[in-house]
Amino acid sequence: MKHIVLTGGGTAGHVTPNIALIPRLTELGYRISYIGSVDGMERKLIEELKIPYYGIASGKLRRYFDWKNFSDPFRVCRGYAQARRVLKELRPDLVFSKGGFVTVPVVIAARHRHIPAIIHESDMTPGLANKLAIPSAARVCCNFPETVKNLPKEKAVLTGSPIRQELLAGDAERARKFCGLESDRPVIMIIGGSLGAASVNENIRKILPGLLPDFQVIHLCGAGKLDPSLEGTEGYVQYEFIKKELADLFALADLVISRAGANAICEILALQKPNLLIPLSAKASRGDQILNARSFERQGFSMVLEEEEITENTLLSAIRDLYCHKDAYAEAMKKNNNIDSITRITDLFEELIQTHRS
Questions:
Q1: Burial of 308 by CB count in 10 Å (0-12 exposed, 13-18 middle, 19+ buried)?
Q2: Residue 49: left (phi > 0), alpha (psi -120 to 50), or beta?
Q3: Residue 74 half-sphere exposure, CB side, CA atoms within 13 Å?
Q4: Contact 128, 32 (CB under 8 A)
């Protein structure tokens, strides 16, 4: 039986693509194990799926001063030693890394144990963890055509990002009943998320008086970010987060407003939803969301409004313009290459395993 070790952690974006691969890997007869951090959020998500989980020490590698910069290198070294022991015990055919700092010692340990490793970079430019892992990887999967040009030619593969297949099976009428919305006006879904959600939430709520005469709004605003004063507002519903009903809400939405995290925009692309992206400001990040958003804008998939450009007038105008041209955006997404990311990535697994065994 083929055996694969998945690794990735720190944020949901480093875990959910791995989870999206699991049904297909099971179909192909893989034995699956997972390496994450000892107390990372990924542990609960993976153990719920009954996948064997191995926790290792993890330290964050920072570009800025922090006292933990003096202790975390020792945690990384400890994690490397632990990863070597786990890989020696498991003897997998392949390691697949979705990113996050916990994956660096795993990918390096795989190279030293002569186990091929594939890493996946969701953003336009690799984050620090993946930059450190790329020299030890056999292949680097990526989302954007621009990324391929900036990676070692013999390693880069354009695969797109694996998304949860259940998102493609939503029911709009079921969502309408769940939300209590009418069928007389189009529906906008706002995905505030967690990172930087406060700014998006605040700006959307400011323009509700201008939006609600023409649109209905489903607002996913993040944990602890509900506005009690808006409860009962006709045509507006808000939730901290949605899990079970998310596919249905996507099916109901005519427009989507979102940050520009790589996994979020890949889901929007797969669902062919006309969208307005508000990337996280470079002041609050390394600027990867801005690059992601601009790539989607160039390809005709998205309208982009940067945070510094937002006023009540610019946001309301952008939404109205997006709705007027929604068919053009949907058509551009439909004409996209439509890479079957899950098949593309698992075919890469099969190819690399066969090559390594021969």
A1: exposed
A2: alpha
A3: 3
A4: no
Residue 236 three-state SS = strand
Using the structure block, give the residue that is written with the tokens 């609960």. Answer: 44
Q: What is the chain's pLDDT, residue by residue, as a tens digit (358 residues)?
A: 899 999 999 887 889 999 999 999 999 999 999 999 998 889 999 999 999 999 999 856 545 445 454 445 667 789 999 999 999 999 999 999 998 889 999 999 999 999 999 999 988 888 888 999 999 999 999 988 889 888 898 999 999 999 989 999 999 999 999 999 999 999 999 997 555 677 889 999 999 999 999 999 999 998 889 999 999 999 999 999 898 999 999 999 999 999 998 889 999 999 999 999 999 886 656 778 999 999 999 999 999 999 889 999 999 999 999 999 999 999 999 987 567 899 999 999 999 999 988 7
Q: What is the DSSP letter of 194?
A: S
